[in-house]
Design brief:
The chain is an alpha/beta fold. Helix content is 35%, strand content 19%. The strands form two sheets. A seven-stranded parallel beta sheet has the order 3-2-1-4-5-6-9, with helices on both faces. A two-stranded parallel ribbon has the order 7-8.
């Protein structure tokens, strides 16, 4: 199998990249980046692209590969500019999905969020819902939507509110419905790889209990 990964420098994307490189089923891994990462591996290719030029980064998605999209930003990174936020989360994800269709890719797997709904009053959940609606309309052979709740793991940037949630949520997670329980970023990455090996066609939403792999650290 071949993989194209977008968002390899983020929390989930960094774990996903490492796991893909160590998975013998994947013989070629291509990551599209704004600037090269300090990672080297015989089966890894890094391509620096301008994500604002859809044609440029779409051209570098591997033909007939599994496309993983871990693209995402925060209001802190865009300084509260919701249009800039949408341009990153929505535009890049949709352009990646469109390219996956053009390149006859076997799977398109992307990260959404629990509670995503295009009619939500919450900006974040509404945006994620709109992304899902737009991608579903493309009718790709296999689309897999990962809907995690709080992601656990060490981020490069400091998010105080999220850090507090990472300390507190695991303690009380057993009280929550499964779909709202936090999940370790490396476990979500492992589940994405597991789903990439599925031969089931169509649209699949993975949330709640389905996100968790038994006995995975």
């Amino acid at each position: 199998m071949k993989a194209t990964l977008i968002g390899s420098s983020g929390l989930v994307g960094s774990y996903l990249l490492n796991q893909l490189l160590n998975d013998p089923i994947f013989v070629q891994v291509q990551i599209l980046v704004r600037k090269k990462l300090s990672v080297s591996h015989p089966k890894l290719t890094q391509v620096v692209v301008d994500f604002e030029r859809a044609d440029e980064f779409q051209a570098n998605i591997l033909d007939q590969s599994v496309v993983f999209s871990c693209i995402g930003t925060t209001q802190k990174k865009v300084h509260g500019d919701l249009l800039a936020y949408r341009k990153i989360d929505f535009d890049i994800t949709i352009h990646a999905a469109e390219a996956a269709k053009q390149k006859l890719c076997s799977h398109f797997i992307f990260i959404s969020a629990v509670g995503a709904a295009s009619n939500s009053a919450n900006f974040y959940l509404k945006l994620k819902g709109e992304i899902e609606v737009a991608i579903e309309k493309l009718q790709l052979p296999r689309t897999i939507v990962m809907r995690p709740s709080l992601l656990l793991g060490k981020r490069q940037e400091n998010r105080m509110a999220e850090q507090m949630g990472q300390w507190i949520m695991p303690i009380f997670s057993w009280l929550l419905p499964h779909r709202y329980r936090p999940i370790k970023a490396n476990q979500l990455a492992a589940k994405m790889i597991e789903m990439s090996k599925s031969t089931s066609l169509g649209w699949h939403i993975v949330e709640g209990k389905e996100l968790f792999i038994a006995n995975h650290d």
